[in-house]
Amino acid sequence: MIRPPEPRPHGLRLAGYGRRLTARLIDLALLLALNVVVNGWFVWRWAQEWAPYWQELFRRAARGDTSAEGLPLPGEQAGSLLVVILLIATALWLAFEVPAMAAGGQTVGKRVMRIRAVPMAADQPLGFGRALSRWSTLGLPTLLWYCAGIGLVLQFVDALSPLWDHPLRQALHDKRAQTVVVEVPYRPASAPSNDRDQPPGDTP
């Protein structure tokens, strides 16, 4: 059976999953660094609220005690702190990704991996509305990490979805925003002109 040729939106090659995954990991590493700076104090306070619970659990495990009765509960602020942490993390992700995608279809990771997102209709900037729609499908479920990790499951499925989408390799957030991710053609720097080496007059 002859496979049909791979689509080339706007004459550009579709980005492979390896490049897309690497670009996303680069962006997540940068976002983690931002969260350490902005969100670090809240995460530390949340960990302190849970510390007595985990310390007692480990003490019992060391004694071979598997009982969960009488374990100290986390402090009253633990739930509120988690909500604040997730709100800040989501806001940082939005500020990091949406303006950059709106202007040029590239985050830092996508620039490094030489890929970009473009609308299916035309090779042009996404614009703020389309960039926000694209991000929200993947980014907003962060707020649902509070609900037994449901948001993380949704994001995991979205991140894997290009693997089974054919022929355009669109993730769920691409489908919502009607975008595709393509490779950025390599354009070598133009060779310097040698006009200055030529003597005046007609060129032989």
TrEMBL record:
The chain crosses the membrane at residues 21-44, 81-104, 138-157. Residues 15-177 form the RDD domain. InterPro entries: Pra-immunoreactive, RDD. The keyword Transmembrane helix applies. Keywords: Cell membrane, Membrane, Transmembrane, Transmembrane helix. It comes from the Bacteria. It is a multi-pass membrane protein. It is found in: Cell membrane. GO terms for cellular component: plasma membrane. Pfam families: RDD (PF06271). PANTHER family: MEMBRANE PROTEIN (PTHR36115:SF4), PROLINE-RICH ANTIGEN HOMOLOG-RELATED (PTHR36115). This is Putative RDD family membrane protein YckC. The lineage of its organism: Bacteria, Bacillati, Actinomycetota, Actinomycetes, Micromonosporales.
